[in-house]
Write a structure and sequence with these properties.
Number of helices: 1
Order of helices and strands: HEEEEEEEEE
Structural class: alpha+beta
Strand order of the largest sheet: 1-2-3-5-6-7-8-9
CATH architecture: Beta Barrel
Oligomer: single chain
Strand content: 35-45%
Largest sheet: 8 strands, antiparallel, barrel
Number of strands: 9
Distance between the termini: 62 Å
CATH class: Mainly Beta
Amino acid sequence: MKLKNLFGILMMLSLCAGFVSCSDDDEEDNAGGINQSLLIGSWLRMDGNQKWVFEADGKFEWWWNNEYSGEWELDCDDDRSTWHMEGDVIVLYGDDEYYQIQELTQEKLVVKDVEEGKDPDIDTYYRM
């Protein structure tokens, strides 16, 4: 009798552990499995010379640090560019740039320049 009770308790614990460990909130519906909402915000390149700003409405700003004046300058032709995702690639319209996301977390963004005719550069950005 005690063995039956022990078996029943173990079964109940196994079922509870299964329900607790499985969650749908880990799955993303975004293109390429990339959680686009993680991109929203300001990102500083590892060397401190460039900064990207992604906004939820599709606006984008590309800033660079002028080494002579020490001031941040906007590097887009029309002051504000746009961005969108194509799979795991960020497309920046204002500069016609294409960057494949290699890694994206809450604090780190690693991208590879995949523009045709260019050597692929890999850059690391950190959330500001």
